Amino acid sequence: MTSDLPTPDAPLKIGTRGSPLALAQANETRDRLAQAFDLPHEAFTIVVIKTTGDRIIDRPLKEIGGKGLFTREIEEELLSGGIDIAVHSMKDMPVLQPDGLMLDTYLPREDVRDAFISPHHTGIAELASGAVVGTSSLRRRAQLLHRRPDLTVVEFRGNMQTRLKKLEDGVASCTFLAMAGLNRMKMDEVPKTAIAPEDMLPAVAQGAIGIERRADDDRTAQMLAAIHDGPTGQRLAAERAFLATLDGSCETPIAGLAELDGDSLHLRGEVLRPDGSTAHSGHRSGPISDGAAMGSDLAQELLTRAGPGFFDWHSGADKV
Ligand SMILES: NCc1[nH]cc(CCC(=O)O)c1CC(=O)O
């Protein structure tokens, strides 16, 4: 199928951010490609790219401009040929990619659930009134305050290691991390309890790794097809259509999860006010091939139920 595979002299350049999780994801991508084509690891180079989001770690993400901050420099390298593929956590990716790029290869999805992390407790119910919770995720913050308005949420930025250090230092009683990241980094020693999606619906695409390429790069497209996971693609098609219709920005707390059962797909979605005061959730079931339509349909329902103004908070005065 593929005539000119990469070689140690002309390696395929894999672009990634430099966080331990990003590197683990890039390594997994290299391993899968090497195995699929029986190539040595030297046929791949991992190129670490520092993004604006990595550089500015002392301010909340929402202040410095949101999601594209972690991808812009990487996508520029891809477009200019500095790298051949870029490996991303799909939950950090906007629904639309720049012209000339394609993002439709997904590795098999990891555990989609959030984990409750605390040295002293095993779940939210155990937290005393007023307990301090650290998270930088607007979704987790809103979901938490929706259930427990008595808790205090403090901003917890930085990579997973930085956040765990803050927890150790006693800055908060607990934090939340994706099970997927903990599993991919084999951080078995972290005191964690997986939270059922019924109790905390995960972010759209949580646990999925996506691989981006230039749209006109046919050799790379053929190589990536060999490691693509179809079921993950079907689930993300529904979840990302849900997100696209909601026009989710980094500032809007949105959760969504699609699961497959035989030929059917079941999609759950939730939108919340950032302070947790109101939440709207719903679900759809249908044939897998209708996933994207179900995603936009569910989003329309939630938009209607939420009513005008629900998503306007970011431009108004009631920002929390
Ligand atoms: N926004 C940061 C981010 N992006 C992806 C993951 C975890 C891995 C995944 O969900 O695929 C994380 C950290 C976290 O939420 O704990």
From TrEMBL:
Chain coiled-coil ranges: none
Keywords of this entry: Porphyrin biosynthesis, Transferase
Pathway the protein takes part in: Porphyrin-containing compound metabolism; protoporphyrin-IX biosynthesis; coproporphyrinogen-III from 5-aminolevulinate: step 2/4
Ranges of residues in domain Porphobilinogen deaminase C-terminal: 236-303
Cofactor(s) named in the record: dipyrromethane
A single GO cellular-component term on record: cytoplasm
Annotated GO MF terms: hydroxymethylbilane synthase activity
Family label: Belongs to the HMBS family.
Its biological purpose: Tetrapolymerization of the monopyrrole PBG into the hydroxymethylbilane pre-uroporphyrinogen in several discrete steps.
PANTHER family associated with the record: PORPHOBILINOGEN DEAMINASE
Protein name: Porphobilinogen deaminase
Organism from which the protein derives: Thalassococcus profundi
UniProt lineage: Bacteria, Pseudomonadati, Pseudomonadota, Alphaproteobacteria, Rhodobacterales
